[in-house]
Specification:
Chains A, B, C: InterPro entries: Ion_tolerance_CutA, N-reg_PII-like_a/b, N-reg_PII/ATP_PRibTrfase_C. The structure is a homotrimer. Chain A is an alpha+beta fold. Chain A has three helices and five strands.
């Protein structure tokens, strides 16, 4: 696994997205997070195609902190099965990646 | 290749983005999709730097469904060479990834 | 490393995001770039959790051009430690990936 990850979740209100972002950074489970939205989420529900407004939170963290971050999102989120997906950061500015690592160290 | 992928395309109108998202989910080629926009796309065209408003569609699917999803986007899209790029999902909530797999099973 | 990459940076004004995108495409360091924003960036600063509006620039390029693109962002950007992170493109439309490669060739 790459040493650094971008981890995405979505939720149905901007203030919930802000709370997820702030609580993860406060606990050093992510160095930073970016919120965008509203986006339009399209999915199948009871056989119909539905679409809803959601807000995305993109956390930047280390592989070492991933399990704790995912557990925190799962506990804090009010969906039964929140989206939590991680994509690898395979290159980056050395200074920025060092900052990510330092911010998530305790 | 990772078992799950995030697949991105872009198009020039919000209703086209919604149609791409809904038709892929309807066919179980993706479990869900998120539309964001307008974004500003910057590219070179006939030697000049152009910028246009576009909408992005981010599909979440399995590696097993990728080829069918890409073929569907290519057929449905009205650009000659639509953007279709996939990034690996290398970690995620077990429950969410199981949902992705189940939604794209037939 | 994958042959193609999606490279992300963020900055604090839309015109700076546009300038970063246009200058990279102009120099063939990226085939295209998409700007979205404002997004809300959440991070720790002097012990407090801060949030600011930022704009994101997502460049699509080749692994062969990554080092030059990262150096260009670092020089052009007015932050001391700008975010520069790359995620691999592990699949995609053959025609689109060929276009990415051609646009970044000199």
């Amino acid at each position: 696994m790459a040493d650094h990850l971008a981890v995405l979740t979505t939720t149905d209100a901007e203030d919930k997205a802000r709370a997820l972002a702030a609580s993860a950074v406060e606990r050093r489970l992510a160095a930073c997070a970016q919120i965008d939205g509203p986006v339009t989420s399209v999915y199948r529900w009871e056989g119909r195609i539905e679409s809803d407004a959601e807000w995305r939170v993109l956390f930047k963290t280390t592989a070492a902190r991933y399990d704790e971050l995912a557990a925190h999102i799962d506990e804090t989120h009010d969906y039964d099965t929140p989206e939590i997906i991680a994509t690898p950061i395979t290159a980056g500015s050395d200074a920025y990646l060092a900052w990510l690592s330092a911010e998530t160290s305790r």
